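Notes from the pairing session

We agreed to fold both candidates in a single pass and log them together. This is the raw record for the first candidate, unedited. Please don't reformat it; downstream parsing expects exactly this layout.

Candidate A
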Amino acid sequence: MMNLAEKLSRYAANLTYDDLTPEAIHEAKRRVLDSLGCAMGARHAEPARIARELALSVSASPGATVIGTIHKSAPDHAAFANGVLFRYLDFNDTYLSKEPAHPSDNIAAILAAAEVVGASGREIILAIVLAYEVQCRLCDAYSIRAQGWDHVTYGAFSTSLACGKLLGLTEEQLTHAQGIAGTVGNAMRQTRVGMLSHWKGCAFANASRGGIFAAQLAKLGMTGPAPIFEGEMGFFNQVAHGNFPLEIEAFGPPFMINQTYIKFWPAEYHSQSAIDAALQLRERIRDWREIAKIEIASFSAAVEIIGGEPEKWRPTTRETADHSLPYCVAVALQDGDVTLDSFNAAHLGNESLLDFIQNITVVGDAALNSRYPVGIPNRLTVTLKDGTQPVCEVTFPRGHARNPMSDTEVVHKFRSMASAYFPENRLAEMIQRCLALEDETSVTPLLELFA
């Protein structure tokens, strides 16, 4: 009997570009464009600066591009620095299941591994689809959040397999890479509790750093603890604490990447439908100052993650604010949109906004739980000072797999974050090359466009 890591290795080793559906290929290219746009939006964030500075202190040949420069760093350092850029704004894509995830977090490590070996665009697309498949299927199997572990723990397995495939690992070496990455990659959920720190946007970047490092070690002959899942002190017993239903036979096609969602607003995904509802209500309310109170009825996961802690009503960090359901709703109602600027120092110090948030309550509604995670239902009931109560409920916000963003919208999102840095001809080339990634013989020229 093959153990789970061996089964995952066999699936990864045997998956080919010809196995991919046109829909999965197209979506992988959109996610590369979206991730690079998020990177430009986060360029001046303090954690991004710190990670970039560390990556620039190391040079490697062959190395991987630190996005925003032409410098080639060690692959694990580049994966971390670029991963922070992709993730920090909480604007990259999402998947919701028993465990939530941001599967495009895998792309930074994949690009780093691809550069080291000179992989083609088709090989990169294949690795991306593989990483999404593994991470999303793990999220479907079990909620490690319920046991106090962070969702990025699953990234140790998805990145080690995707990077290992690009590096040409055998099935046995892929299993060793999972063992190494999986043993050291268990991340504590403290990352996302209370007042959030810089690390909230860096945690998966660290998991991807471990994944590519494990794959490189395995390629050179390093063996890893086994069996990583079923062992006496392995993942099932130590992290999952019991049943872990994962059937490799159920893996795509159709591929999980097409069940994930691109974010329309730069905030934690469970808030997207609440933001959508708030903006719809704003069109019906003449002036937000006429609002006396707001009730947000939501499902258990949203209440737990972004609506249940006192810090969410008076956030002092960007990381906490974009993970605050009441904050995001208040900003949407006051400003008429939620943008990157919604979480700047001026907003965090705006006493009028902070006082307004105190009029918001978040309540769990058991009836909404049955519609999650297929949808993310949030219902806003606004009570105006004249006693009227407009209500709006949204289940599938813009960007959800059941309400997807068009290519035009994805390109617009990219431009909104990258246009401050580059002329139009450069932007047009970036967009064209990302959306024709299968034609690239190397990813380095594309990444160097962002210098």
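Candidate B (folded immediately after A)
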Amino acid sequence: MEEKLENIEAEAKAAIKEATDLDGLEELRVKYLGKKGQVTEILQGIGDLEPEQRPVVGKLGNQIKSRLEALIEDKEEELKELLKQKKLEEEQIDVTLPGVKEGYGYQHPLTQTLAEIKEVFLGLGFSIAEGPEVEKDYYNFEALNIPKTHPARDMQDSFYISADILLRTHTSPVQIRTMKQSEVPIRIIAPGRVYRVDEVDANHSPVFHQVEGLMVGQDISFSQLKGILIEFAQEMFGADREVRFRPSYFPFTEPSAEVDVSCIVCAGEGCRVCSQTGWLEILGSGMVHPRVLEMSGLDPQEVSGFAFGMGVERIAMLKYGITDIRLFYENDMRFLEQF
């Protein structure tokens, strides 16, 4: 039995010496010193030996167990140190290498365009007004001279929450709320997000942004509207842009006009972008309908006003030559970095 113990010790010492990682070393500890290890089994079987062998085998077994435990502990410290050195080498930083540049954020083109629009109108004496995106049918349609039976409702397919509550289809309700709550004269723009039931394609989105404007006071005229919108168009698209007004129809303005600028690509000569017309439509406008003034608590015999509205996406697409509205919402960094 003594010889067997000595052979086990020799075998264990050799195996411990060759161990290359902590997991392998733990396996060796279990193999020789665990509950079912070779040395442990011999010590547990001492009771089956002859009485005179028991003290000899017991003493030798415990000595071998102590030596192997010390050897395993020393080897464990050695492997831990080697592992530490390896980790330090792998994590070593070469301070002579060039630094890694952090990516810069970019302002979204819609944010840029909206900021430019605001800057122009703030410079013309307008202030900014806001209103709820979840709106009453009354403010979104009826107070704008669009009753429930009006065919103009078919022009805008809306997201209704209930019979009288919907997601606003334009920012015009802000104009109504402002006229009801503010003293004349009024000069505001109403930027914000609006919603319409549209299929997503290159030119349509169910969510987009508008800026609408309103000016109400005594002796407000269409010529003032023209002057302000010409100034806006030339500030946004260049001082050399020509501007034209075309008769149109909106339930809440009378008379009404669409506003075009000479094509920013071909300078009015005709190209694919302007469909060979030489003109690009940028917004709608008109004199506030007397019925809208009345429903807002104002006397159309005493005051008059004009209103206009534009799509921020539309302005950005024309200004930067973007052909697909979906690019604004896909968050592709290759697109955004261009701005």
